[in-house]
Automatic annotation (TrEMBL):
The gene is CIBAR1. This is CBY1 interacting BAR domain containing 1. Keywords: Cell projection, Cilium, Differentiation, Flagellum, Membrane, Mitochondrion, Mitochondrion inner membrane, Nucleus, Spermatogenesis, Transit peptide. It is found in: Cell projection, Cilium, Flagellum; Cytoplasm, Cytoskeleton, Cilium basal body; Cytoplasm, Cytoskeleton, Microtubule organizing center, Centrosome, Centriole; Mitochondrion inner membrane. The keyword Kinase does not apply. GO terms for cellular component: centriole; ciliary basal body; ciliary transition zone; mitochondrial inner membrane; motile cilium; nucleus. It comes from the Eukaryota. InterPro entries: AH/BAR_dom_sf (IPR027267), CBAR/FAM92 (IPR009602). GO terms for biological process: cell differentiation; cilium assembly; spermatogenesis. It holds the Pfam family FAM92.
Length: 162
């Protein structure tokens, strides 16, 4: 029975390791791609601002009717860039930052898994040692009971940690 519960925990641990590795890989990629998208959108906004400035400079050299039309166009184009700025800020705040936070969460989960694996390996060694003691000295009840008790104590401690 104890062996079966260890096998179940092994399967659960492997499943958790796979899930953490999967999240670590894909969320890292998502974060990098979204950050690159935000940077490129910000660069596009900067270029559009340069374009608006150049249109205004050109408008100053033209006739009054063309000057008014270019100024109106530059003003409307600048308003579009204000929306692009809002998009950049919202993407950073609502998408990139939460994805970055997942990096910390994944690292903590990976550390928890390492601690769990260490405890599980220690428990497996104790179980192996108990089996060896049972095979060598089946009549030495005192040693077997003390090993069995410490093993069950570890098992209970592990179950409480979960």
């Amino acid at each position: 029975m104890l062996r079966r519960s260890l096998e179940n925990r092994d399967a659960q641990t492997r499943q958790l390791q796979d899930a953490v590795t999967n999240v670590e890989k894909h969320f890292g990629e998502l974060c990098q791609i979204f950050a690159a998208y935000v940077r490129k959108t910000a660069r596009l906004r900067d270029k559009a601002d340069l374009l608006v400035n150049e249109i205004n400079v050109y408008a100053c050299t033209e006739t009054p009717n063309l000057k008014q039309g270019l100024k109106n166009f530059a003003e409307e184009f600048a308003k579009l860039q204000d929306y692009r700025q809002a998009e950049v800020e919202r993407l950073e705040a609502k998408v990139v930052e939460p994805l970055k936070a997942y990096g910390t969460i994944v690292k903590m989960k990976r550390d928890d898994l390492k601690a769990t694996l260490t405890a599980r390996n220690r428990e497996a060694k104790q179980l192996t040692q108990l089996e060896r003691t049972r095979q060598r000295n089946p009549s030495d009840r005192h040693v077997i009971v003390s090993f069995d008790f410490s093993l069950k104590k570890c098992f209970v401690r592990y179950a409480v940690q979960k």
